[in-house]
Design a protein that fits this description.
Blueprint (H helix, E strand, L loop, with lengths): L5 H5 L4 H9 L4 E4 L9 H9 L7 E8 L2 E8 L6 H7 L5 E3 L2 H8 L16 E5 L8 E7 L2 E5 L1 H8 L2 E3 L4
């Protein structure tokens, strides 16, 4: 196992927190004890952190016309695949193979962050993120969330904001 640099240790040790720190972005880390039996990673995070599920966003990887695409939507709802395809000018969208999502992003299911991915994928953040001063997304592992402004999230991921949740 590779030794973590001092910077990685200080930032929480995930590619997402390292990317945030390197960008000089203001963020707050929230750690909680992950329960492997929890039926929904995002809803578990909202409960554990005492944050409204409308402010906690899950990161999903879909395939739009054969290209992997990241969708960031509130844990309180679900992803509208047709809206995701339309947001990136595509025709058809389907959820990506979980192994392909993990391999491409460098994260495990339930811990995929829209930040610091191994390969930067086009990203769409649900427009409802703009309704909040800050939102929470996975910081790169189960049991670790990062809170940041929606504008910073969009800027760091190169995201398009569009109504993709339902």
């Amino acid at each position: 196992m590779a030794k973590k640099s001092k910077k990685q240790q200080q930032a929480g040790g995930t590619p997402a927190t390292v990317a945030l720190t390197a960008a000089g972005t203001a963020f707050t880390l929230h750690a909680y004890e992950h329960d492997p039996a929890a039926p929904s990673y995002g809803e578990e995070a909202a409960r554990a952190l005492g944050v409204s599920p409308e402010r906690v966003f899950k990161t999903l990887v879909a395939e739009v016309d054969g290209e992997l695409t990241v969708a960031v939507v509130p844990v309180a709802g679900s992803l509208d695949l047709k809206a995701l395809a339309a947001a990136v000018g595509g025709k058809r969208a389907a959820m990506a193979d979980p192994a392909a999502a993990e391999r491409t992003t460098g994260y495990v299911r339930g811990g995929i962050s829209p930040l610091g991915q191994r390969k930067r994928l086009r990203t769409v953040v649900d427009a409802s993120a703009g309704d909040h001063t800050t939102v929470c997304v996975s910081a790169g592992r189960r049991g670790l969330e990062v809170e940041l402004s929606p504008a910073d999230l969009a800027a760091l991921t190169g995201a398009v904001l569009a109504p993709i949740g339902r």
